[in-house]
């Protein structure tokens, strides 16, 4: 509104000016040009657009119907048409009437950002808020919204949680703050905190903002100390009805960077392992080391490739219809989506149907109402557990002579075929959820608004699990069926008062007061039955179990009561201040310690609006920001302060008796808030007419009164207790850079890079001991001066080779059994001549930096999007190189990741000699591996059919696209994915074909 | 304007409501489905469930899957009767692991023992204190609760002391205030034994000889442990008194045949205390895996298949050695190696896959051990892995032969040991030791002994009680642990590492450094570590 008002004023002066020009120029010979100016947005006339004869002051403006008429010099060749909010356009003069369509000028500075309890212009943002490009984010065909955030904002680290269809990923914003509490951000969807973000259809998302410093997070206070992901869903707009369709189809196939031992290689490994234990260093006879079944397979050379047998390519499909419509008073957005993903392990999959209706109704000048309804129903099918497809011996028979599946491929009942286990198990989780929002806004007085924000969310799940009596797990109990039901509820009531006033030309004040009640409840009931005479009904036949175990029941609830006040003040559009204070009371803390008070303040200076920069054309924006404040974390489970007992039953003479005792965690009735205090300093810039834009931020977060599970001495009878202690520090640098290299109408090219590093350190834990040394918690892996999740292992130093003097080595001094050529060599890091636990070294698992590089190139109707993701300097322990059950011990008992192991004939310098009887004791030192990687996450090509072609058949726009995800990954880490070990669900490459239509 | 005023008033009213309705009441927390520790320790009903919890805690020694299920037989692998053949258990057995406070791989198991027994102690402390302070409880019920808790406290401290030597003893339950107290010194030995003896005396006084709940602590179990404590203190009169009370006054008798002792659920006349399981019942169906460690891999021999009467599936990680087998073989009529406690031979049982030239039921003789180091047997490894004699005391007769795990009762104390305690105590006090010694021998079909000395007691204990969990303590108590290990551990030409690896300090286990760090820098480690 304000803009239009100014425009009119400008036009008045401009018209006066034109009047003079016309008079001055009237002496020359003239011709008359007529035409119409339209908006590209809706093809409607633009009244008041300015038309100037190029190179002169001669001009006019359009009337109410967008028409103009201008007398110009006969020699004039072109006109310049301008209108605020649209790009200037130059047109050739012709004798016939000209029709000019102005393109909307999207100025990045005028974008609106959601910051919690309202939106503000991006240029007015004071705290650290990152906006996610939703278009780019949802280019990943998944139901996992966290995964979509990967690489889309600096300082937001996404690590794979579960790649299973319906699985989720972990988001860490600016490092891990908490030791015992969780480190996940909270998700606020349309103003309401939600536990499970994956219920949301990505297509419904209008914007995603990430709040990174205390000043921004303060709005959502408790639970916000690990950052906030603000999701806003689409709403209807005033204008004509728009119906859209988006569908895609994806095929996935396994991606990996390691080999397993083939049948003969595996046999050789076992022969070597036995040879090592042979006193004469001779190979044992095959008859001794292989079972009859294995010998048979070795004879036929018909080996089993379990990975290949189990994993197959699988499809994803998604279809969404959405509708957006609105009149002056009523606006509607609605969508319906069905997403279906089959897993690359058969019998796993996920499907989800979702429906959303967002309705805004203005009742009168003062009162307006909004309703959101979101319904989701999903089914997750999980594959059988204990699928030993990596570790199962290839010397197995998959099918028998009749073509029937073999249950025990290598003869031993310890190893069941994964194909058998897949066939003999079912595990479905069906979930239904609904979220209802009701929002009432009432203008109490001029500039003073009251908002009532309420929501109710419920999610029920129904899980059925069945292992038949021949499944490797079901066998122990002659079949097992388990049915569990759970219910999650959340309620929110917020009373919001807001006073927003432009006091005068130079001063703007905005005050918000919020009072909120937030309750979350969870309950679950489960029944387990064993001993089945038949398995035809699966878990639905639980009634026929001959043995039904007692019903299990668990329920919890947590409550949060908060008061928040925020004052925003702007002076001359140059200096912006925000101060926030909140008090939070949480039920999970001890009586007397339930309340926490958390203040914060922020300041921004729009330097580009200062007089000394106003005339510098190169600088579009230069803004300096600084903030400081604290936020609480209540991320512990309910009832930790109460002291509860667990069930420890016993049987006497075949009869059960009830037993309860406190478990291994000593109850502490004195727990209070953990507080994160953060300092943030940032610079936002945009130069050369948005050729280059970005922001640079430095932060330093300190978390005190850590909720920590501290180890206690064994003589207490407990292993740990929850307590408030110590301090964790996270500091880092974040950079976001966007270069709009080419900005022509037909050809556009922009490149965006994000970079973030984070240094995580435990500054203090439990104080110092009598000698003044800091007290570590070795049992929990907490060491003062080290990151929170540090790797503490021996220092791998290669392999002992023939002729080297291992007999006088520090390892021999430590009485290491079986030490010899082919053993792992460990550095005596403290130089005391003997390997002890003190020789272990710290390895930081966190990446030195991580980031992304993406490029968007559009030429006419084509758009090419490329997105790389980088993680540099991360370290991980790979159990598949060290753990027995993961086939990492080179004993020839289980198959595993193929490595060039040591043999006397081929002395390896990187892997030890196989040993049947006992694995090398230092394999875990070897297993500390570099998990850095670079991945081409997305490569997408889209084509937008020409509008002219489409409008004839009543369609606004059509886009066809093809996307490839995870096309390649460069890493040394041997796993299906460098972020997840092979005990997780395998990672996949995906190829997608999609279609978007707007009617 | 009217509506505006109403709404304004409404909001003010709402605000007042919110502030007056007490915040702290709203935020008060009450567990919905969990039993509170307060209920367990401060009500008669709760204390009864707490005592049952102690039985469960005590049983966890047998269910510690993290350490390949051998926590309860680790000590057995370190005795003079054992061949630690393979598996991680053998690394402990061969004195490679568990010999240093910092042993990276072994420390978790050492910490497990330390934490396991102290966990029982602390909960027993809390139950005793709760029961003593509770006003609303029947006196007999109170005494029975305290008696069982005191039995477990005494037994746990006794085991802790025998394993770790330098221990700290307290009767105070832990709380967040005392949990971080720095513990600077061990408790003097006489104080430890004063508490153990007073606890056991209380248990003897307040418990009955018999109980309808088989597996509950009885007066007999308390007297049995008190006798063992007395032996340790060389209080021979007390050991004699307690053991003879059990034999003469208790409801026990030796089973007529050695073959009956370990049959079925062990709920027989000889059993004084057995760990209880029951398949399919809540609190009874957790699994253990002791038997798997003993039974060899006989099914790998051609012509053999898994059979439950042979013990089902095994790994053959812990085997009886020739020293033990020879002790039993001294008397050829001794039934203890007649497939009762031990099996010596295997016979072909897989008619479908018989090798040439043998018949079903023929003895499996294709493998032989090395008897001359200069002329090693080519099938030595196969012999030990597949058909070496084995211990049968932990078989679950009705198990699926292909299962590694089992759900069956485990013997802890039985009358045969009481007889041998009585024999030793009488020997030291000039009583009729032979009567008690020969009761055990006669039952096993062996000839009566005519002389008795410490070696005779030791040897008879080996024949009768091998692998039941007592041997290592007995050797340590008699001061012969080093001698027996150095001379007899393993077999002469197979897995005898312990003979050379053993060092005098190994009579104690090292206290894990991680535990010392948590107690205080000056708590004393055992000598030699």
CATH architecture assignment name of the domain at 108-240 in chain A: Beta Complex
* Dominant shape of chain B: globular
Q: How confident is the prediction overall: mean pLDDT of chain B?
A: 92
Strand content of chain B: under 5%
Supply database-style keywords.
heterodimer; A: 999 residues; mainly beta; Immunoglobulin-like; Ferric Hydroxamate Uptake Protein, Chain A, domain 1; five-stranded mixed β-sheet; 53 strands; 46% strand; globular; B: 529 residues; mainly alpha; two-stranded antiparallel ribbon; two-stranded antiparallel sheet
How does this structure look, described?
- The complex is a heterodimer of chains A (999) and B (529).
- Chain A has 999 residues and is mainly beta.
- Among the domains of chain A are: 2-102, Sandwich (Immunoglobulin-like); 108-240, Ferric Hydroxamate Uptake Protein, Chain A, domain 1.
- In chain A, a hairpin with a 4-residue loop joins strand 36 and strand 37.
- By secondary structure, chain B is mainly alpha-helical.
- Chain B has a domain at 277-408.
- Chain B is globular.
- The N and C termini of chain B lie far apart (88 Å).
- The mean pLDDT of chain B is 92.
- The interface between A and B is large, with 95 and 106 residues.
- Strand 31 of chain A pairs antiparallel with strand 1 (35-36) of chain B.
Quick structural summary:
The complex is a heterodimer of chains A (999) and B (529). With 999 residues, chain A is mainly beta.
Which secondary structure elements does this structure contain, and how are they paired or packed?
The complex is a heterodimer of chains A (999) and B (529).
Chain A: H1 2-25, E1 30-39, E2 50-53, E3 59-61, E4 67-73, E5 78-82, E6 89-92, E7 98-102, E8 112-114, E9 119-121, E10 129-132, H2 134-137, H3 145-149, E11 156-160, E12 169-173, E13 186-189, E14 192-194, E15 205-211, H4 214-217, E16 228-233, E17 239-254, H5 263-277, H6 286-289, H7 292-300, H8 306-310, E18 314-326, E19 330-342, E20 349-362, E21 367-381, H9 418-423, E22 425-445, E23 448-467, E24 480-502, E25 507-530, E26 547-548, E27 552-571, E28 575-586, E29 595-606, H10 611-614, E30 619-633, E31 644-647, E32 650-652, E33 655-657, E34 660-661, E35 665-666, E36 674-687, E37 692-704, E38 707-711, E39 720-724, E40 727-743, E41 747-764, E42 791-793, E43 796-799, H11 810-813, E44 824-826, E45 841-843, E46 849-859, E47 862-872, E48 875-877, H12 923-926, E49 928-930, E50 933-944, H13 947-951, E51 957-965, E52 969-971, E53 988-998
Parallel strand pairs in A: 1-7, 13-16, 35-39
Antiparallel strand pairs in A: 1-4, 2-3, 2-5, 5-6, 8-9, 10-15, 11-12, 13-14, 15-16, 17-18, 17-53, 18-19, 19-20, 20-21, 21-22, 22-23, 23-24, 24-25, 25-26, 25-27, 27-28, 28-29, 29-30, 30-36, 31-34, 32-33, 36-37, 37-40, 38-39, 40-41, 41-46, 42-45, 43-44, 46-47, 47-50, 48-49, 50-51, 50-52, 51-53
Chain B: H1 2-20, H2 23-27, E1 35-36, H3 37-41, H4 44-59, H5 74-77, E2 82-84, H6 87-93, H7 107-133, H8 139-164, H9 189-206, H10 219-232, H11 236-249, H12 258-261, E3 271-275, H13 290-294, E4 318-320, H14 322-329, E5 342-343, H15 380-387, E6 390-391, E7 410-414, H16 415-429, H17 433-443, H18 454-465, H19 471-478, H20 481-488, H21 497-501, H22 513-519
Antiparallel strand pairs in B: 2-4, 3-7, 5-6
Helix pairs in contact in B: 4-7, 4-8, 7-8, 8-9, 9-10, 10-11, 11-16, 14-18, 16-17, 16-18, 18-19
């Amino acid at each position: 509104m304000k803009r239009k008002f100014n425009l009119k004023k400008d036009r008045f002066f401009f018209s006066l000016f034109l009047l003079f020009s016309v008079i001055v120029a009237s002496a020359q010979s003239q011709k008359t040009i007529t035409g119409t100016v339209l908006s590209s947005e809706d093809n409607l006339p633009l009244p008041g657009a300015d038309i100037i004869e190029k190179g002169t002051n001669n001009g006019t403006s359009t009337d109410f119907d967008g028409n103009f008429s201008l007398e110009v010099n006969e020699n004039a060749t072109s006109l310049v048409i301008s209108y605020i909010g649209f790009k200037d356009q130059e047109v050739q003069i012709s004798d016939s009437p000209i029709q000019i369509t102005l393109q909307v000028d999207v100025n990045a500075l005028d974008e609106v950002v959601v910051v919690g309890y309202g939106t503000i212009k991006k240029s007015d943002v004071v705290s650290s808020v990152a906006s996610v490009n939703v278009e780019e984010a949802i280019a990943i065909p998944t139901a996992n919204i966290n995964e979509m955030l990967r690489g889309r904002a600096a300082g937001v680290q996404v690590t794979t949680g579960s790649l299973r269809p319906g699985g989720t990923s972990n988001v860490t914003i600016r490092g891990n703050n908490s030791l015992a509490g969780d480190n996940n951000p909270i998700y606020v969807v349309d103003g309401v905190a939600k536990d499970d973000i994956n219920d949301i259809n990505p297509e419904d998302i209008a914007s995603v903002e990430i709040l990174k410093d205390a000043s921004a997070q303060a709005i959502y206070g408790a639970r916000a100390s690990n950052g906030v992901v603000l999701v806003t869903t689409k709403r209807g707009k005033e204008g004509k009805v728009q119906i859209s369709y988006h569908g895609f189809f994806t095929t996935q196939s396994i991606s990996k960077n390691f080999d397993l031992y083939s049948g003969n290689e595996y046999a050789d490994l076992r022969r070597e392992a036995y040879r090592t234990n042979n006193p004469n260093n001779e190979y044992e006879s095959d008859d001794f080391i292989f079972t009859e079944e294995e010998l048979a397979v070795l004879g036929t050379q018909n080996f089993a490739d379990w990975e290949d047998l189990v994993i197959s390519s699988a499809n994803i499909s998604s279809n969404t219809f959405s509708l957006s419509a609105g009149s002056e008073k009523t606006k509607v957005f609605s969508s319906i989506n069905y997403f279906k993903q089959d897993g690359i392990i058969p019998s796993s999959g996920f499907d989800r149907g979702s429906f959303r209706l967002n309705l805004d109704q203005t009742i009168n000048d003062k009162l307006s109402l909004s309703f959101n309804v979101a319904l989701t129903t999903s089914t997750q099918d999980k594959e059988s557990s204990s699928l030993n497809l990596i570790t199962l011996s290839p010397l197995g028979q998959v099918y028998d002579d009749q073509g029937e599946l073999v249950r025990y491929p290598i003869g031993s009942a310890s190893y069941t075929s994964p194909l058998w286990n897949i066939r003999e198990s079912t595990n479905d989780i069906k979930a239904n959820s609904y979220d209802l929002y009701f929002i009432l806004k009432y203008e109490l007085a001029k500039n003073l608004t009251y908002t009532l924000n309420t929501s109710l969310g419920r999610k029920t799940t129904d899980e059925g699990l069945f292992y038949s009596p021949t499944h490797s797990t079901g066998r122990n109990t002659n079949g097992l069926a388990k049915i569990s039901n759970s219910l999650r509820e959340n309620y929110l009531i917020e009373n919001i008062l807001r006073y927003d006033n432009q006091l005068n030309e130079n001063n703007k004040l905005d005050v918000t007061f919020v009072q909120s009640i937030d309750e979350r409840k969870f309950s679950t009931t489960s029944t387990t039955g064993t001993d089945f005479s038949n398995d035809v009904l699966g878990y639905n036949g639980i009634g026929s179990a001959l043995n039904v175990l007692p019903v299990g029941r668990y329920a919890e609830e947590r409550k949060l009561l908060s008061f928040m006040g925020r004052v925003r003040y702007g002076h001359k559009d140059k200096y912006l201040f925000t101060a926030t204070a909140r008090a939070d009371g949480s039920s999970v803390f001890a009586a007397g310690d339930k309340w926490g008070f958390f203040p914060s303040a922020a300041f921004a200076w729009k330097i580009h609006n200062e007089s000394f920069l106003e005339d510098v054309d190169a600088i579009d924006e230069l803004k300096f920001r600084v903030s400081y404040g604290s936020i609480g974390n209540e991320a512990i489970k309910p009832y930790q302060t109460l002291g509860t007992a667990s069930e420890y039953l016993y049987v006497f003479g075949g009869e059960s008796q009830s037993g309860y005792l406190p478990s291994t965690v000593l109850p502490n009735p004195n727990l209070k808030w953990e507080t994160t205090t953060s300092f943030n300093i940032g610079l936002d810039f945009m130069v050369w007419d948005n050729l280059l834009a970005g922001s640079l931020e430095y932060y330093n977060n300190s978390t005190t009164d850590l909720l920590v599970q501290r180890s206690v001495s064994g003589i207490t009878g407990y292993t740990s207790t929850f307590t408030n202690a110590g301090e964790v520090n996270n500091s880092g640098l974040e950079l976001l850079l966007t270069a709009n290299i080419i900005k022509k109408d037909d050809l556009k090219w922009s490149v965006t890079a994000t970079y973030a590093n984070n240094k995580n350190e435990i500054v203090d834990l439990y104080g110092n001991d009598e000698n003044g040394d800091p007290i570590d918690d070795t049992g929990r892996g907490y060491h003062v001066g080290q990151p929170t999740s540090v790797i503490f292992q021996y220092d791998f130093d290669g392999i002992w080779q023939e002729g080297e003097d291992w007999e006088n080595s520090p390892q021999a001094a430590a009485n290491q059994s079986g030490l010899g050529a082919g053993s792992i060599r460990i550095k005596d890091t403290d130089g005391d001549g003997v390997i002890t636990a003190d020789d272990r070294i710290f390895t930081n698992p966190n990446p030195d930096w991580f980031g992304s590089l993406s490029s968007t190139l559009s030429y006419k109707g084509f758009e090419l999007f490329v997105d790389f993701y980088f993680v540099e300097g991360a370290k991980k322990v790979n159990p598949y190189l060290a753990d027995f059950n993961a086939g990492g011990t080179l004993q020839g008992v289980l198959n595993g990741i193929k490595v060039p192991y040591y043999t006397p004939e081929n002395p390896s310098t990187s892997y030890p000699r196989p040993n049947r009887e006992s694995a090398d004791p230092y394999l875990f030192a070897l297993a500390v591996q570099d998990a850095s990687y670079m991945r081409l996450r997305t490569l997408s090509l889209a084509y937008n059919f020409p509008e002219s072609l489409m409008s004839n058949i009543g369609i606004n726009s059509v886009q066809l696209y093809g996307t490839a995800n995870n096309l390649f990954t460069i890493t040394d880490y041997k796993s299906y994915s460098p972020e997840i070990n092979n005990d997780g669900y395998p990672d996949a490459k995906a190829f997608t074909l999609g279609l978007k239509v707007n009617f | 304007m009217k509506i505006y005023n109403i709404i304004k008033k409404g909001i003010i009213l709402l605000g007042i409501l919110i502030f007056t309705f007490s915040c702290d009441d709203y935020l008060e927390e009450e567990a919905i489905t969990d039993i509170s520790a307060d209920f367990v320790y401060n009500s008669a009903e709760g204390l009864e469930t707490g005592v049952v919890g102690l039985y469960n805690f005590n049983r966890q020694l047998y269910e510690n899957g993290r350490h390949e299920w051998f926590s309860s037989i680790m000590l057995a692998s370190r005795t003079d009767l054992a061949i630690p053949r393979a598996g991680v258990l053998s690394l402990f057995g061969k004195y490679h692991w568990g010999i240093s406070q910092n042993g990276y791989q072994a420390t978790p198991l050492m910490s497990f023992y330390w934490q396991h027994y102290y966990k029982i102690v602390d909960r027993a402390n809390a139950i005793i204190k709760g029961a003593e302070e509770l006003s609303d409880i029947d006196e007999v019920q109170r005494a029975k609760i305290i008696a069982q808790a005191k039995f477990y406290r005494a037994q746990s401290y006794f085991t802790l002391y025998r394993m770790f030597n330098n221990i700290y003893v307290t009767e105070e339950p832990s709380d967040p205030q005392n949990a971080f107290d720095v513990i600077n010194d061990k408790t003097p030995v006489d104080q430890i034994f004063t508490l153990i003896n007073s606890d056991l005396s209380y248990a003897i006084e307040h418990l009955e000889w018999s109980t309808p709940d088989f597996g509950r602590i009885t007066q007999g179990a308390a007297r049995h442990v008190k006798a063992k404590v007395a032996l340790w203190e060389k209080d021979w009169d007390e050991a004699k008194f307690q053991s003879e009370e059990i034999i003469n006054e208790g409801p026990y008798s030796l089973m007529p045949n050695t073959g009956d002792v370990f049959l079925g659920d062990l709920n027989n006349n000889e059993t004084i205390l057995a760990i209880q399981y029951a398949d399919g019942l809540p609190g009874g169906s957790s699994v253990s895996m002791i038997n798997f460690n003993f039974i060899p891999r006989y099914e790998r021999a051609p012509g053999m298949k898994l059979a439950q009467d042979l013990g089902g599936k095994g790994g053959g990680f812990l085997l009886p050695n020739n020293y033990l087998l020879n002790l039993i073989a001294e008397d050829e009529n001794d039934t203890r190696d007649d497939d009762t406690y031990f099996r010596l031979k295997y016979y072909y049982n897989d008619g479908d896959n018989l090798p040439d030239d043998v018949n079903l039921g023929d003895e499996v003789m294709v493998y032989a051990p090395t008897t001359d180091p200069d002329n090693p047997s080519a099938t030595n490894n196969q012999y030990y892995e597949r058909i070496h004699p084995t211990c049968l005391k932990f078989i679950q007769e009705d198990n699926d032969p292909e299962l590694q795990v089992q759900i069956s009762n485990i013997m802890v104390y039985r009358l045969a040991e009481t007889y041998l305690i009585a024999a030793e105590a009488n020997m030291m006090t000039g009583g009729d030791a032979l009567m008690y010694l020969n009761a055990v021998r006669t039952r096993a079909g062996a000839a009566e002994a005519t002389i008795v000395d410490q070696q005779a007691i030791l040897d008879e204990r080996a024949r009768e009680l091998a692998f039941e969990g007592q041997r290592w303590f007995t050797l340590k108590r008699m001061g012969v642990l080093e001698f027996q290990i150095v001379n007899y551990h393993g077999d002469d030409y197979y897995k005898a590492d312990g003979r050379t690896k053993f060092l005098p300090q190994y009579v104690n286990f090292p206290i894990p450094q991680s535990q010392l760090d948590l107690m205080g820098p000056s708590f004393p480690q055992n000598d030699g570590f």
